[in-house]
Amino acid sequence: MSSTWVLWFWILNVLILTGTMIIYPQEVFTAAVGGLNTWLTIVFPALLPFFVMSELMVGLGFVHFLGVLLEPLMRPVFNLPGSGGFVVAMGYTSGFPVGAMLTARLRTARLCTQAEGERLVSFTNNASPLFIFVAVAVGMFHQPALGIWLAIVHYGINLLLGIALRFYRSREIEVKQCQPSENFSLQTAIKVMLEARRADGRAIGQLLGDAIRTAVNNLLAIGGFIIVFAVLIRLLAVIGLLHLFSQSFAWGLIQFGIPAELGNALATGFFEMTLGTKLASETPPPLVNAAIAGAILGWSGLAIHAQIAAMISHTDIRLRAFVLTRLLHAFFSGLLLYFILNHWSVLNPITPVLAPASVTRGCISLGGLLKWNLLLTTLVMGLMLVGAGACRSLQKK
Question: CB-based contacts of 348: which residues, under 8 Å, 6+ apart?
Fold first, then answer.
């Protein structure tokens, strides 16, 4: 009976949405074009190289290679296989939804269990560093120093949640296709990589073609979600439902002594992260709105949740842990930023630093985006390998 009511609930919502689209065709078209432009000019070219590269690294056995070397770090800290270190490095430097896509790839290759996949996807999907530093701190708030605090809180809390998740379903055991050896030497890593490459067996040309097809299909799904949610948010605003949502959030904010005007930013950010953070930056009071933006970044928006759900839809990974982690991330991010920004004189709330438009545009150019993402990924991976070496030395002692 309950499933029937759920079905009718969704049918009713789809009918209402369809009717609204018929009534407001111009609004739908404008919102869809905006979403399409965002996907085509920013998301697609920025993520395609990383999606293809990730598929190639799995097919060539490089992820298996890293799995052996990073096991001494990943297992004691996060209770995850060493191959998860590749997902962590990419997820913390490339932005949404790379972490989910790579986690699904590991699960498909049986390099992680279902429980490990749910842990991994819960804390490896972040806003990219360039989005935080350039788009939010400089472009929206005109406060370059704010980017440092947003990044520290955003990534720091997510890492702490990742460590806490090591206890999530920790007693469950599932046999994996590739069990890493207890010998974490470079020689063993190379041996495992060669075995994985032989097991894959695809010629380089076929591997590259499969990687491109998989990457483009995933990006098409992401583009669809971006367009659909752009339309949905616009329709919610037109028919007044978004205002009702904002009133509900405003009531909650008032209970904590936060101005109700920020409720609209929270309501929008509940659905879409970028629009929500932009509204927060335009709504007083200063500093408090930055804490709200931090909470929105932690939640990441239903549009991102839908993209992540699409990335893992062909696996048995569930989203319960992910959604709970996003709620905790949003709460602790907003709380910690509120405390830091309002009790420590770390920012000037009156005279923000205005970056010239030419500088801002240059910082977020596609070439700069790809270059800095590659540099950050290499740096993070290098630091993780150093950490794994240190852990391996301590274990020998």
Answer: 143
